[in-house]
Amino acid sequence: MIGSLSLGYSPCPNDTFLFYALAHGIVSLPGLERPPLLTDVETLNGLVRNVRLSISKISCHALGHVRHDYALLRSGAALGRGCGPLLVAPRDFDPVTLSTSRIAIPGNLTTASLLLRLWQPNCRNLIVLPFDRIIPAICTGQVDAGLIIHEERFTFAQHGLKELVDLGCWWQKLTGLPLPLGAIVAQRQLGSEKITSIEKAIAASLLYAQNNPGEPVAYIQQHAQELTAGAIEQHIALYVNDFTQNMGEEGLAAIEELLGRAAKAELIPPQEGPLLIKERDE
């Protein structure tokens, strides 16, 4: 379809909450293809890196590889405090052995993996696993430790695991900025007028869900990874906040700081050009 817009986001509760009204046509966005693609964020990172989606949720780490082709949107981002990835291990794990340990990560382009590399550059024995397979891999001895994200942050203790480091707290102490985890991007070739309309539609979709919190519940539960109602509420409360409606200058500064540190450490390409569409295309 000429002028059609493909959309991808994760099945995590914060994303299905955010995009509920758009996905169901309650908020209009001309040209939007339905149904959207729901898949894990690392798959979305790869699709965006190959310029396969018009609009997508991606990791802020991945943004450092695609900013030439995609513009960062002000709405829809996952930033905050107290929401960072956790490095966990069995209770008898000796942290002294961390640099030689087998550590599971939820994807090479996830922000979690980037934070781990910034925190401990000597951790090189990294094993990529789907985020929901990391805790089982630790418990069965397939890996020695693991970096957990999403709902696993709320359940790891039930599996007899301990927290080694909260990378969100580490980031906040280091920079004083909120932690940028994920963001929504749109292809730059769409142009500033279309991208502005996309930003407004995403913000309107979020506002609808916030004003009608009971309505998206069935959709969220349909895609949640076996989460209880309480865990879903925790997840949304943690990852949906004022930065999601509009990241503002503080949110943008946090993303620039993350990408700047990553580029300095040669973990992503040198960063050139603006992140936002209007900075360059108007």
UniProtKB/TrEMBL annotation:
Keyword Lyase attached: yes
Catalytic function, reaction form: cyclic dehypoxanthinylfutalosinate = 1,4-dihydroxy-6-naphthoate + dihydroxyacetone
Enzyme class: lyase
The protein's annotated pathway: Quinol/quinone metabolism; menaquinone biosynthesis
InterPro entries assigned: Menaquinone_biosynth (IPR003773), MqnD (IPR030869)
Chain sites annotated for binding substrate: 57-59, 111-112
GO function term, MF aspect, one: carbon-carbon lyase activity
CDD domains from the UniProt entry: PBP2_Ttha1568_Mqnd
Cytoplasm as UniProt keyword: no
GO biological process, one term: menaquinone biosynthetic process
Database matches in PANTHER family: 1,4-DIHYDROXY-6-NAPHTOATE SYNTHASE
Protein name as catalogued: 1,4-dihydroxy-6-naphtoate synthase
Annotated source species: Syntrophotalea acetylenivorans
